[in-house]
Amino acid sequence: MEVRGQLILLSDRIAERADKVHHRRGKATDAIAPGPASARGRRAVALPLFFVAALTFAAALAAVYGQGGRAQILGLPADIRAALHERTLGEVASLCIQRAARASGELRDHCVSQARFLLSFPECDAACRASAAEVLPHSRR
Length: 141
Fold this sequence. Notes:
With 141 residues, this protein is mainly α.
């Protein structure tokens, strides 16, 4: 029950941060046309925010794994489980399937962990399993 509460709080925090960034971007684009300097500024805000969100998300995943993995996932309410599945699938698709993420190091380890976590969901269909297989070590040739 505690893990579910932590996941809900985590989800709310990520959504609030995304809303704040989106709101700030809306004001900036209304006032002036975006140029190279404003694009760098947005990247300077978005990149650290992405890493904070990814680390927080990884911590939540570690909490779920540490308390029973698949059984804990199945114990989540269907709507929360589906949202967590979609976020994980989105991260695997957008970050982990890139060539740079397949190389080595901590990012590689994180991506392999995310792919394994993704396979724990009952919502993981054939396309989901194919995405996970692109990241998992046994699928590389």
